[in-house]
Amino acid sequence: MSNKYNKRFSLSILLWMRKDKPRQEGMNYWSGGHAQIIAASPGLLEYRQQHLSESEHSFWPQAEGLETSIPEDRRVDGIAEVTYQTLFAPLGGTKQTGLAFKDEINVFRRTLMHMGFPFSSRWYYTENLTETQLRDVIFFRRKEGVGSGEFKKFINDVLADQLSTIPGITELRTQVYLPWNKLTWNTPNVSHDNPKEEHLHASIMLGFKDEAARNDFYVNVAPKLNDKITAYASAVHAYHMDKTLPYVLDGKRL
């Protein structure tokens, strides 16, 4: 443990709802029976669902050479945010994983798992201890020619370190992903199409104490961050979260 952050074994499964059903119907199904399949897995430290806004996205400040507008077909509907207690905890959840595999066809049209090395996810301590009222998630695509090591160092040691000191930010979590591999989450009858030019390489989850703090960040802070970001990233995709639904917290099923 650092005095600035805790290291966690986390993964994120990006989810797209089926198009032959109303989106909200799919979101409701995901937060109901499907969620309970995952929540029953042993060895979880935390399981949260992040329901992303259908309309409030692509709002990261523009900069030359930086893609901030999310293509419609690649717009993510939700994130299954899973954190394990130990390195071997996933092995104990194979039964629940199998049930989740079979159930995905009922709600999702595409699922993509993203994860880093075990215990490489960072949950930072922020200077604002106020309860989080609003959350956004920011995805990054590594710029061509930038090495994975220097990209990871930028996200974790430069950008996140700066974000952790900004007034009004109440939650800060980073994940820098290993190269994406379909076989890590190859569920049947669901698409896992992920062209190399669409790959995402990191995410930062931001919590804010209120709407004023969030607005101030995007108006006065984020544009200045682009001066550094454009040297490492070719795309920054921002989403607002309509809601965060916890099912397991601190190792306890809710």
Termini separation (Å)? 26 Å
Low-confidence stretches: none
Radius of gyration: 17 Å
Strand order in the sheet with the most strands: 1-3-2-9-6-8-7-5
Average pLDDT, to the nearest integer?
Answer: 95
Helicity level, as a percent range?
25-40%
Largest β-sheet summary? 8 strands, antiparallel, barrel
Strand-and-helix sequence, N→C? EHEEHHEEEHEEHEE
Q: What is the structural class?
A: alpha+beta
Number of helices: 5
- Strand percentage lies at 35-45%
Structural notes for this entry:
The chain has 254 residues and is of the alpha+beta class. It has helices at residues 23-39, 89-92, 94-103, 148-163, 211-229; strands at residues 5-17, 44-57, 78-84, 108-115, 121-124, 134-142, 169-176, 202-208, 233-249, 252-253. The protein has an eight-stranded antiparallel β-barrel with strand order 1-3-2-9-6-8-7-5. The longest helix has 19 residues, at 211-229.
SSE layout and pairing:
Blueprint: E1 5-17, H1 23-39, E2 44-57, E3 78-84, H2 89-92, H3 94-103, E4 108-115, E5 121-124, E6 134-142, H4 148-163, E7 169-176, E8 202-208, H5 211-229, E9 233-249, E10 252-253
Antiparallel strand pairs: 1-3, 1-4, 1-5, 2-3, 2-9, 5-7, 6-8, 6-9, 7-8, 9-10
Q: Would you summarize the structure shown here?
A:
The chain is α+β, with helices and mostly antiparallel strands and 254 residues long.
Q: Tags for this entry?
A:
254 residues, single chain
